[in-house]
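REVIEWER CHECKLIST
Item 1: Sequence provided? yes
Item 2: Single chain? yes
Item 3: Sequence as submitted:
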Amino acid sequence: MTETIKNAACRRIPSLDALLGDPAAAPLLDRYGREAVAAAARGELEEIRRAIAAGPAPASGTAPDLSPAALAPRVRARLERRLAPSLAPAVNATGVIMHSGLGRAVLSAAAGQALDDAASGYSTLALDRDSGKRVSRDRHVEGLLRELTGAEAATVANNNAAATVLILNTLARGKEVIVSRGQLVEIGGSFRLPDVMAMSGASLREIGTTNKTHLSDYEAAIGESTGAILRVHHSNYRIVGFAEEPPIADLAALGRARGIPVVDDLGSGALVDLARYGLAAEPLVRDSVTAGADVVCFSGDKLIGGPQSGLIAGGSAWIARIRKNPLARAFRCGKLTLAALEATLRLFLAPDRLEDVHPIYRMLALTPDELGRRAGNLAASLRKNLPASAAVAVEDGASEVGSGAVPVETLPTKVLSVRSSAVGAEELARRLRLSTPPVFARIHKGAVLLDLRTVQPGEDTVVERAVREALT
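Item 4: Structure as written out by the authors:
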């Protein structure tokens, strides 16, 4: 009897042609095309057949509506799931300004407009308007980098790890690169500097100890096989206490005296002094160039706040050699990266206006009082309709710069603390992540913490709605 009922239910499933030919499917065909709708409909019909075969027989009078009109919304939902982008907007309420998992830097409005302009049609990527001849795509950012860093020349790679490989492969392939043991860093994704050097074709020559390396250690290591001296900034950690390293100026002087190029990998790199935001100083690119480093590299998507890229600045002869390396083509940036990077670098020409036009520096400049007012307004609005099991409060907290920049420094902030006796903190955070758009927060001592420093203008209402839905 059960099989008979199931067979009857299966016979009620419309054919693919019947489903596609029904008027309810017409809007789907217009929007998505026949091939995509057919694939989704076929999958939906097959899923219904499997559910009927595996499940209990429906009771009399409870059979589901399997008409084409009833199935069309299910096909639409399947299409939307299939075609929805996995890389989607998100709300960052973690307080980590440059959150690697959430895309690092928030691009400025100027960079966003530059992306739209470059993506909407053809562009002057590598052609000169006056002569009509092909020119280097570096020209879009090289002049800005020269002005902002004081370097003679500059070029760009697709990230700073690529920049490091490109530099070392050009300057020291088949030779030794001298580097302090205290600078053999590992960055995100278990990406280790010794591995980067090995890929460049250079060999590592470790000197000094973890906490102390002297100029004499560099002098003693230089020999016929030396290709370069490399200094690596402690981007994502600090050695404190009994520690010492020679300044880049001393290494540059040694390199000049011995005919060895000196490379300064600054990691995040900075074009403005972070002291104005109450943070410890990150090395300024201009200072390294002025100190005499032959080549300097740093990220374009950290403290610069642009798209992912690796920026290389230095002496014109060294940059010319780097450009001629075949790897430069493999690591080069496309038009979208260059468009956003050019627009971002232009913002630094007016450093006194950065906080008004650059999202990273706007977030750095926010005060606890400002954040407290926003959090207080959000808490007051939430309390109007909170379930009895939930409570919100404004508490002191600490924001982080993130992405390996200023690793031991935090910024005082105010956070919105959300607790519920009905929903655990882990589950509440999960529900926030599953909202649309997803909201990412922190968990601390049984509470979900939302730091409005990294919640962008206009997103407070989005956070409020997500919290309310997650609690109810």
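Item 5: Key structural point noted by reviewer: Residues 451 and 464 are 13 Å apart (CA to CA).
Item 6: Recommendation: ____
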